[in-house]
Amino acid sequence: MTFQFIKQYMKLAIQEAKLAVYEGEVPVGAIIVSDSGEELARAHNLKETKKNPCLHAEMIAIAEATRKIDSWRLLGASIFVTLEPCPMCLSALQQARVKTVYFGAYDLKGGAISLGYNLHNDKRLNHKMNVIGGIDNFECSKLLSDFFKKKRELHKKIR
Questions:
Q1: pTM of the prediction?
Q2: Strand pairing of 78-83 and 130-132?
Q3: What is the DSSP string of 71-116?
Q4: Mean pLDDT score of the chain
Q5: Pairing with 131, which of 3, 10, 64, 119 sits 20 to 30 Å away (CA)?
Q6: Are 56 and 86 in contact (CB under 8 A)?
Q7: What is the Cα–Cα distance from 24 to 26, expressed in whole angstroms?
Q8: Which residue from 109, 134, 114, 98 is spatially nearest to 10, judged by alpha carbons?
Q9: CA of 130: how far to CAs of 97, 104, 157, in Å?
Q10: 59-102 residue pLDDT tens
Q11: Catalytically annotated residue among 16, 25, 58, 84
Q12: Is 58 a catalytic residue?
């Protein structure tokens, strides 16, 4: 996959994350692309909207992509996500047999890799994936920082 291709899909994930802001959701967006370059799914967080802790952008995108191809295996597919996947999402991506995870901002308090859950290269598991972080890190991080800053300002006004 070329750097230009990676940047193109990360920009789409960022656009998806921006949609989450309008719904009061943490701005995380995800795009799943087949090995042939076909977009299989796009999603953003819906935890607050649907009152469901499992509705991370990655989980929704996995469900949509697997429905689209009528298989639980996303062999050869890549996911582009604006925030480092949490342990739940990285595990689901491993279970779905995704080939590569590209993410933007690191999540030192909740990201699987940052917390040391290296499921992508755990020799005890039967599927290995590539994980590449820091793609458009500044833009992805700023989107999250701005969201939480506005949220804190709103809380100060209410008090």
A1: 0.94
A2: unpaired
A3: SS--TT-EEEEEEPPPHHHHHHHHHTT-SEEEEEE--TTT-TTTTT
A4: 95
A5: 64
A6: yes
A7: 7
A8: 134
A9: 11, 14, 44
A10: 999 999 999 999 999 999 999 999 999 999 999 999 999 999 99
A11: 58
A12: yes
